[in-house]
Amino acid sequence: MLDGSSPKAGIRHVLDPLLPGMPLDQIGQALASAYDALVSEGVPEHLAALVRQVKHTDLDVPPKSGRLALVVEDDPDVRGLAETLLDETELSVVGCDSAEKALTVLRKSGGDVALVFADISLAGQMDGIQLANAVATLWPKARLVITSGVAPERRDEIPDRAVFIPKPWRALDVLVEAGRAAKEAPPPVA
């Protein structure tokens, strides 16, 4: 926080007025404000700037389950294949062709995202490595799977907890990662 207090103290300040009888829309607004404070204060500036640049649009998130698999791939055929494959799991699936669109989904439903399956090369200004770093920082409970047709040149920039699956990937490898993501408990609500 700007006054030197911890981000948790700032969240408490925002959430203090939340009383048992408060309408859900006001609770949602307070939580969004707390989230924005965390993003702007607890994230390296270059990642926070990228997240702020993402335009808020309404992307449809299918209601299959409470947990999501986010497929981020600029090739529509490969994205469609991954979406179809992941649709066979208990996760709902959302596909995006760019990291910017993926961040829009994450800002809207980040707590529900169990798996981010992203190619390194994407449409838009951000690549899959930048997206993976943003996800690792802002949504640390999401399982990260990075894929590419060539070995990543910037392997040291990929988050340690991310799994790399080379293209062409095997369906079984993707399903194993989706299964692991679905079994992991969602983050607690505090």
Automatic annotation (TrEMBL):
SUPFAM superfamilies: CheY-like (SSF52172). InterPro entries: Bact_response_regulator (IPR050595), CheY-like_superfamily (IPR011006), Sig_transdc_resp-reg_receiver (IPR001789). The modification 4-aspartylphosphate is found at D119. Pfam families: Response_reg. Residues 68-190 form the Response regulatory domain. Keywords: Phosphoprotein. This is Response regulatory domain-containing protein. It comes from Methylobacterium brachythecii. The lineage of its organism: Bacteria, Pseudomonadati, Pseudomonadota, Alphaproteobacteria, Hyphomicrobiales.
